[in-house]
Amino acid sequence: MPTSFLEIVELPDGRIVLRRADDEEALLTLDFSSDAKLFLQGQHVEVAKAMINVGVQMAGRMSEGELEREEEGSRVLH
Question: Domain residues for 33?
Answer without folding.
Answer: 6-63
